[in-house]
């Protein structure tokens, strides 16, 4: 496995792989790799002969007061994980390699970025879409892999790729969970043992929502109230949102029909946690 | 020469050319081709074995009340010109092929889009950068060719390509002028015979500006005043701006040093005309 922080070098390597007829898969990450990322790397290896993992804590997607400085950067450990799971190349650029001058050009998606996390993180998705555009242009992947845990990010990226005719396919892989249901996340390591225990209420609450819908509930407000009540049993949990939305437009639904995405965000001590599940109501 | 309006088809053709080791040159146009476009096609042929000319009057770069509906669309004539000058392919999509759903994703460049034409055409450059991104993603050119007559457009595209690491080179070709100095433009055909005659004052005024600077003038305000005075001899000419700007940032300069771009925009009857020249003051 090769590792570089240089754009010129990664371009040479992917051009070479392309010339050899290999398909190129990209797994864009901020590092601090966990079982969720490993599932993405493995999905990429099943689809593509040449897998690139990028490790880049992208400053432009963090807002003021967010955890950019504290975001974990266990570089050596990340490299070992990429190697163990068969990545061909790790691309780990510095901020100045990615942003060598004042960045004047932004890729932004309106509408679907304004719901859910977009409400509390106003420039977050603009940073994500811009850095993903840069990574796609640098690496030139045939397929890029994202996790369903970041459901809004996945919907936004899909829409960007469609609107701008980007020549690649987006694959979204299922959320990886621990035995007790907690979605794995780099930010889980901010949690104390007690908070880690408390955090499991999020998935239990989502499951109660699922059961209500599968038992016939069609009023989104009632389902939301139940989920909030379950999460509210943990006093330290500060709910940011519990939303039932259309999986594509991410607009709130009132009456539940077809597939619905239940998405939640909450603060627990130092961590902001998000999770979601897709539920098919079976109703038209 | 082949002609298509379909994205899938142009992608197949350029993929084939790429597989044959050909370099792909793109000349993005809105059609109504003239000698300026011909110079771009010829420059593309000197650099690239496979030249694509796109013909697309892009609705998203026109503002309300602008000339989108009236913009000339002499399709057969354009095809003949492309054929005569050795284009391999013409890509002429419909608006619904390029924008099949509500467009939510925009590429925008701040700063350099806000000067000159950006003041009177607030969303124009966002439309240009978005459609160019789409065309680049569809065609996959090694080199794209633009004219210096649209100096601000060229500067904006260059900056976008650099900021987003787009994997292509931008070549800017000199402005093509008629014998009397008027820059060729698709919009010149809006002019009556008398207006066509009056329009030549623009280039004469720019040349007076050049002479002042080459004779040692360093006060941009004085040069601007002279250019405005020369253009003012044509009563029908409504000056929108006369600006002396840094060629890269497009910010106004007060004291002239190094290279300076003199850019003008004016209305003459039904036409909005723009022109510019680059002057090297020889001063540091």
From TrEMBL, chains A, B:
Active site residues according to the UniProt entry: 37
Entry keyword Chaperone: no
Entry binding sites for beta-alanine: 61
EC code(s) of this entry: 6.3.2.1
Catalysed transformations (reactions): (R)-pantoate + beta-alanine + ATP = (R)-pantothenate + AMP + diphosphate + H(+)
GO terms under biological process: pantothenate biosynthetic process
Protein name listed in UniProt: Pantothenate synthetase
């Amino acid at each position: 496995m090769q590792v570089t922080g240089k754009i010129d070098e990664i371009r040479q390597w992917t051009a070479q792989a392309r010339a050899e007829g290999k398909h190129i898969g990209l797994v864009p990450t901020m590092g601090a790799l966990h079982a969720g990322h490993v599932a993405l790397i493995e999905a990429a290896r099943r689809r593509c002969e040449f897998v690139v993992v990028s490790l880049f804590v992208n400053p432009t997607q963090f807002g003021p007061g967010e955890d950019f400085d504290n975001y974990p950067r266990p570089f050596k450990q990340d490299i070992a994980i990429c190697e163990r799971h068969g990545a061909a190349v790790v691309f780990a650029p510095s901020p100045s390699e990615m942003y060598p001058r004042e960045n004047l050009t932004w890729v932004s998606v309106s509408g679907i970025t304004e719901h859910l996390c977009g409400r509390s993180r106003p420039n977050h998705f603009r940073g994500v879409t811009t850095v993903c555009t840069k990574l796609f242009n640098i690496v030139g992947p045939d397929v890029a892999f994202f996790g369903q845990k970041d459901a809004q990010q996945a919907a936004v990226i899909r829409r960007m790729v469609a609107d701008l005719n980007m020549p690649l396919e987006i694959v979204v892989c299922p959320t990886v969970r621990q035995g007790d249901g907690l979605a794995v996340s780099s930010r889980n390591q901010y949690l104390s043992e007690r908070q880690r225990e408390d955090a499991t209420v999020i998935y239990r609450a989502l499951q109660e929502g699922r059961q209500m819908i599968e038992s016939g509930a069609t009023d989104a407000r009632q389902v939301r109230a139940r989920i909030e009540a379950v999460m509210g049993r943990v006093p330290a949990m500060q709910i940011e949102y519990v939303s039932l939305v259309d999986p594509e437009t991410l607009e709130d639904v009132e009456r539940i029909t077809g597939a619905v995405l239940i998405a939640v965000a909450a603060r627990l001590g130092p961590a902001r946690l998000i999770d979601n599940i897709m539920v098919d109501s079976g109703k038209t």
